[in-house]
# Entry
Amino acid sequence: MSLLLRIEMIVLAIIIAAFVINSVTKKKMCIQYSLVWIVLSLALLVIAAFPGIVFWLCDLLGIKTPSNLIYLLGIIYLMLITFMQTCIISKQTEKIKFLTQMVSIEKHKNTKEDQ
Amino acid sequence: MKLLLILPAYNEKDNIVNTVDQIRRFQKSNPTVVEVDYLVINDGSTDTTEQVCRENDIKCLSLIQNLGIGGAVQTGYIYAFMNGYDIAVQFDGDGQHDVNSLPDLIAPILSGEADFTVGSRFVEKGKTFQSTFLRRVGIRHLSLLIRLVSGLKISDVTSGYRAANKKTIAFLAKNYPTDYPEPESVVTLKKNKFRIKEVQVNMFERAAGKSSISSWKSIYYMCKVSFAIICASIQKREVK
# Structure
């Protein structure tokens, strides 16, 4: 892995981390959901520092070029995030439904008492 | 004993008054031993449903936003649970269901024979109208699937004319699917050892307005419901 590529990866990792930390401090993102992005940034740093990991994994999995492995890992990681988000959305849908039902019932009760 | 008719209504300003008038006539000549009450659940209608209800002195609970049929009906079950009703009956706000079939529908519940009854158009062939061909094929498929996964014999699986006893009300208040809930909820109930019985009822053609299942959505409907039935059948029993 060339030195230039390693520097690029470090820069990218720093940009991602900066974005995420900025979003968290500005309350655009809650900490619990920011962790997946911080992990991504850390992973980039680790690979830039120890490129040997990528080559070792390539040999282990029988993948010819490191870039293919990076793509594969990237796609798997993105799918994982999307899957988690679908779960979060589903839970929130349930909660919003319950809230709507309870608020509507309370509101109905109050208007009945007013009459 | 008190009974609550749950009438989910989404943009039903043309039908709701007639439907409730039918119920009021039924209340006056009530042939059953139970006290019959009703509640319209206005599912965030964008038309004047809420206004029409107020003007005609119809008991109406308006959801603060649209939840879809499942969420609306569940609100009715939650309301019935909170107010100690003994029986809750789902009843369409569009005038399709005949309130005069109510005594038949709740008879198995009153006798303690069933926890949940489904009002069906198909139990006795030839009686009342039989829906369109495609819809019948779809219903046949779902009916077969339900029988396969749960052993339950229900012919009119999409029927929204259904009655629940106290125990079932408590369960449905907590567990009710969101969209196209009818077939799925029957499987979930069966899975949780509720006794289900199908009863012949009378239904009318829709007076006005559109059915919640339009033709272009029917493929999505079949896929979603089939998958939901399979999921419901392998779900673990509620411990609550």
